[in-house]
Design brief:
It contains five helices and two strands. It is mostly helical. The chain folds into two domains: 32 residues, no CATH class; 73 residues, no CATH class. It has a two-stranded antiparallel ribbon. α3 crosses α5 and α4 crosses α5. The N and C termini lie far apart (87 Å).
């Protein structure tokens, strides 16, 4: 039993010291040769359960890049603020709040789709959430 304990302790000592030494060799040189980058990326998905939205969206889904993600983010932020205000007020046809953060990177696709969801809602409910100045 003592022999087993000693081997375990020696093995544990090698693993503990392994972060800086591998059998007497310094691994700092190895760390300089290879730099490991760990990217944490959160993906967001917008799921719309309103009937008719997907077909409406597919007919109007023009993903041209002439409007930037910043354009959609700006509009979505304004829409979400108004949407949430109306939700707190108890407005009919708005039965949940939207947790939209302007500082979160949702990606172009989600921002594009969310923008068009707000447009869909306006069209199907006959009510403008935000007045847009069209020149």
């Amino acid at each position: 039993m003592r022999c087993f304990v000693r081997i375990t302790l020696i093995t544990a000592a090698i693993f503990i010291c392994g972060s800086t030494y591998v059998l007497g060799q310094n691994t700092d040189a190895k760390k300089q040769d290879k730099e490991i980058k760990i990217e944490q990326k959160t993906e967001y998905e917008l799921i719309v359960i309103d009937p008719g939205f997907e077909s409406w969206y597919s007919l109007r889904n023009v993903k041209s890049k002439h409007k930037s993600e910043a354009y959609y983010k700006n509009w979505n932020n304004r829409y979400a603020i108004e949407w949430n205000r109306l939700y707190r007020k108890g407005t009919r046809n708005i039965d949940s709040d939207i947790d939209y953060n302007l500082n979160t990177d949702y990606g172009f696709e989600l921002n594009h789709k969310l923008y068009y969801y707000f447009r869909f809602w306006e069209e199907t409910n006959g009510r403008m959430l935000i007045k847009r100045n069209v020149k």
